[in-house]
Design goal:
The chain is an alpha/beta fold. It has one domain: Rossmann fold (3-Layer(aba) Sandwich), CATH 3.40.50.300. The protein is built from 6 helices and 7 strands; from the N terminus they run H-E-H-E-H-H-E-E-E-E-H-H-E. Helix 1 packs across helix 2. It is globular, with a radius of gyration of 17 Å. The relative contact order is 0.23.
């Protein structure tokens, strides 16, 4: 399925009841770009009808990660506040008439900003995006009860490796630091997503 086909399918199923769509994929797959594009497409006829809720906003802070010895693995499944994401989804489903403040991850400072985005009652489609939304894991599985549909962005592993390498080169990493970042964190996270995600409703290529 192409992204255009996915957008058309979501537009067909949109209704008065708020719908929550999960977009998952490996690091470097382009799921954030796809999610932002879907919001733009769904909002062409009625701006503000869709919004993104990013999993990255629920990163544990570095203070917590350092205390637990998990800072080198930041971005791995165990470094996220899944309970916080679960609570946000529950509020969005159970209180569609209310404004819900959600966090947004600021990559420039590696910190999640609390209440950085407001999802209001006019938002009828919420695109939740993140690596581990479909992870076959007891910590992550409870999230799926809130998804009306799920999509997985499928990208060949070789392409993912190229993109992840280019990403960190762009941030100025090189040599041993780059190797440590990729082999010690990004590539293991990529393999976890590819090997342990449950089947989605839609595969986007």
């Amino acid at each position: 399925m192409t992204r255009t086909e996915l957008a058309a399918r979501l537009a067909e199923t949109s209704c008065e009841r708020r719908q929550i769509i999960a977009v998952a994929g490996s690091p470097g797959s382009g799921k954030s770009t796809l999610s932002d594009w879907l919001v733009e497409e769904l909002g062409r006829s009625k701006p503000g009808v869709a919004a993104v809720l990013a999993m990255d906003g629920f990163h544990f802070d570095d203070i917590v990660l350092n205390a637990r010895g998990h800072r080198p693995r930041k971005g791995a499944p165990h470094t996220f506040d899944t309970g916080g994401l679960l609570s946000a989804l529950q509020r969005l489903v159970e209180r569609p008439e209310s404004e819900v403040a959600v966090p947004v991850f600021d990559r420039s400072i590696e910190i999640a900003r609390a209440g950085a985005r407001i999802i209001g009652p006019d938002v009828r489609t919420i695109i939740v995006e993140g690596n581990y939304l479909l992870l076959d894991d007891p910590v992550w599985a409870p999230l799926r009860q809130f998804f009306d549909a799920t999509a997985f962005v499928e990208v060949p592993e070789a392409v993912l490796r190229e993109r992840l390498t280019a990403r960190w080169l762009g941030y100025g990493l090189s040599g041993e630091a780059l190797e440590t970042k990729l082999e010690g964190n990004d590539f293991p996270n990529m393999r976890t997503v590819l090997a342990k995600s449950v089947a989605p409703d839609f595969v986007v290529i």
